[in-house]
Design brief:
homodimer; 149 residues; alpha+beta; Arc Repressor Mutant, subunit A; two-stranded antiparallel ribbon; 6 helices; 19% strand; globular; disordered N terminus
């Protein structure tokens, strides 16, 4: 494990998430999965070395984020493709939060290449904090509180 | 750079964010900052080696996420503490998204140690996608669309 090989802190959900999602390349592989990519060759195009991609896909399957599904194209041999599970689709806010922060605070000369949209009507959506009634709470009014337990 | 040393993909805001936030330990250092920690010795307690912490704090200052502020305690020498900037506070959704995912999909025997709350009344808040009118959009109805540009 090359990235985020953290001392075990089982009580912190951020640390737990990072043991999987914090591995190098993993969130970019998942970004591709959210774009609808499912195949090894498609994921490879982001520049990840093949052996690392193999390891990452294996970890993501083991973690229940992706699941293997066999396919055969033309007369070729049967291969696996990798589909997001429900737990995998729930990673979308992590990717969207990174995207929002990067767009806002690391502006690039070239335009952004992705947008989170409501599938039904392509309306742009953004991540926000909401209270129990679904009312938006401004980020500056939110604190992360450590619970003493 | 030990983590997320990615091929340059300047057009992807997720990749841009990860060049900073994807470095090993960085998001846990920022978690501590959100808890109100500001000092080197406080950040050290998460188990990060001192040389790595020095490097990470330097990168975070350079990236405009933390800023140095001198303080002197008792008769000691002047040291710097590290305060979140506005750009740094905007990382909160990334940390909150990781926390939500970990709580939901990597349940631990022990209770969670943190919660995002509205500062004014300690009401728990959660991250959600919202449309332009501030209406919550369910995660399963959101897609990440690659823009061809």
């Amino acid at each position: 494990m090359d990235a985020m090989a953290l001392p075990v802190n089982d009580r912190c959900p951020v640390a737990r998430s990072l043991t999987i999602l914090g591995q190098k390349w993993t969130l970019l592989v998942l970004r591709e999965a959210f774009f609808g990519r499912t195949r090894f060759a498609e994921f490879s195009r982001i520049g990840i070395p093949s052996d690392v991609l193999t390891a990452r896909l294996g970890s993501l399957v083991e973690a229940g984020i992706l699941e293997r599904s066999p396919y055969r194209e033309g007369g070729g041999r049967v291969r696996d493709e990798y589909l997001l599970t429900a737990a995998g689709r729930d990673v979308l806010p992590v990717v969207a939060a990174l995207s929002q922060w990067g767009r806002e605070h690391l502006p690039a000369a070239e335009a952004s290449t992705m947008r989170a949209l409501r599938d039904a009507d392509d309306e742009p959506v953004r991540l926000a904090f909401v209270d129990s009634r679904g009312e938006v709470v401004a980020g500056r009014d939110v604190v992360l509180r450590r619970l003493v337990g």
